[in-house]
Specification:
single chain, 403 residues, alpha+beta, 8-stranded mixed beta sheet, 7-stranded mixed beta sheet, 9 helices, 36% strand
């Protein structure tokens, strides 16, 4: 019926050091009841982790600098360089033509340029049967995936348990993401043009002085961004299900469907047990993924992130009008970084760690103390904590199910 593969890993946006890094599904092709969302990663095509956990603190700083550096680049990255384009050849795959990048002798270093999720239909579908795909998890990755599938004409179901969910995320997005994901500027709370990096001894480094007048880092609230992406997927044809995914029955043959079980959380049928039969399953349900468990994807390392939304006095909020702060030091995190990022009418104060998850409350107190003079008198509006994936699982594809 259908098969799934991954190449290079990031077939959806991933949160790297608090910054949402875009990588979309592209090149959709429909032909006689089949579909191919295709692409490849340059290099040898193997899936490898982007960052090791022992460099996360440095990666946080690098992400901020890279985001500022990228903020002025409005154009999307090309699929391949000129030399790579010359090496493109096509191979037939289930009745469709899929571009393939030949390995060049000098290409030793792996690259994430052009990395995408590949989804292709296998044999001919039975007459009158339309490919059905379930995407579990309605965050930026799952919602963007569902949107691309729905726009391609695929019967798509997007399952999300909390439609108002807010994960502890700095919410900073580069300017190029607005164009790549076709995001309206009205979902951006703040246009940050100044970044203050603060050392363990409280020495400050200012970043952003070279930005042009129209360049900025967008600060968004996840509840706003995620909802926009989900509603767009729904508008483009995806069926949005407010439900808690409980598990699925794996097919015993290539023609059998996956049978998903979920608890319906709509007001009219709250808690009712439902089932859904689909041909393909895509798991975008985060660090505690039940899809990953069902396909025996294996264990992996994760971080714990903790964040407080805080409304501070107006004079202090003025300081953060166009500014975000990142703190490093053993008092705020042994391996990550802490942040104070502005939102619409408040700031987000948070931190994270991989190696000392039990100490997360201590590190949150550390960022409160370090930023005390700038957030003093603030009122805590909400507290958010959640595990954050740090790298891909050992196994990401099993049959027609993928993460």
């Amino acid at each position: 019926m259908a098969s799934l593969m991954t190449s290079g890993g990031p077939g959806a946006p991933v949160a790297t050091a608090g910054f949402i890094v875009p990588a979309t599904l592209r090149n959709t092709q429909l032909s006689h009841g089949k579909v191919a969302l295709r692409g490849s990663s340059t290099g040898n095509g193997e899936a490898t982790p982007i960052l090791s956990t022992n460099c996360m603190q440095a990666a946080g700083i690098a992400a901020a600098v890279a985001a500022f550096a990228a903020s002025g680049h409005h154009r999307r990255a090309k699929f391949a360089t000129a030399s790579q384009a010359a090496a493109v050849r096509t191979v037939p795959m289930a009745g469709v033509t899929v571009p393939h990048l030949s390995q060049q002798p000098h290409q030793q270093q792996k690259s994430l340029r052009g990395a995408r999720m590949i989804v292709c239909a296998g044999n001919e579908l039975p007459e009158g049967h339309k490919l059905r795909v379930a995407v579990v998890g309605g965050g930026p990755g799952g919602a963007s995936c569902a949107d691309s599938l729905a726009k391609a004409g695929i019967e798509t179901y997007l399952i999300e348990r909390k439609l108002d969910n807010c994960k502890p995320c700095g919410g900073a997005i580069p300017l190029c993401m607005l164009e790549e994901f076709d995001l309206p500027t009205n979902i951006v709370d703040r246009k940050v043009r100044k970044m203050t990096m603060i050392s363990p001894t409280n020495k400050e480094v200012q970043i952003g002085s070279t930005l042009a007048d129209d360049e900025f880092i967008g600060m968004v609230r996840r509840e706003v961004l995620d909802d926009f992406l989900r509603q767009r997927a729904k508008k483009n044809g995806a069926t949005l299900i407010n439900g808690l995914f409980m598990g699925m029955t794996m097919p015993q043959s290539k023609t059998e469907p996956y049978v998903l079980t979920y608890n319906d959380l709509n007001q009219d049928n709250k808690g009712a047990k439902r089932t859904l039969e689909v041909d393909v399953v895509i798991g975008g349900d985060g660090a505690n993924s039940r899809v990953a468990k069902a396909i025996e994807a294996g264990d992996y390392e994760y971080a714990i992130a903790f964040q407080e939304r805080m409304r501070i006095p107006e004079d202090k909020m003025e300081y953060y009008k166009e500014r975000a702060e990142m703190y490093v030091g053993e008092d705020v995190s042994p391996d990550f970084y802490a942040w104070v990022f502005p939102k619409c009418d408040h700031v987000a104060v948070g931190t994270g760690t991989v190696i000392d998850k039990k100490g997360i409350q201590k590190y949150q107190q550390g960022i409160r103390d370090r930023a005390r003079s700038r957030i003093e008198g603030g009122e805590i509006l909400r507290v958010e904590a959640h595990p954050i994936p740090e790298h891909p699982r050992p196994r990401r594809v099993n049959g027609r199910a993928a993460l």
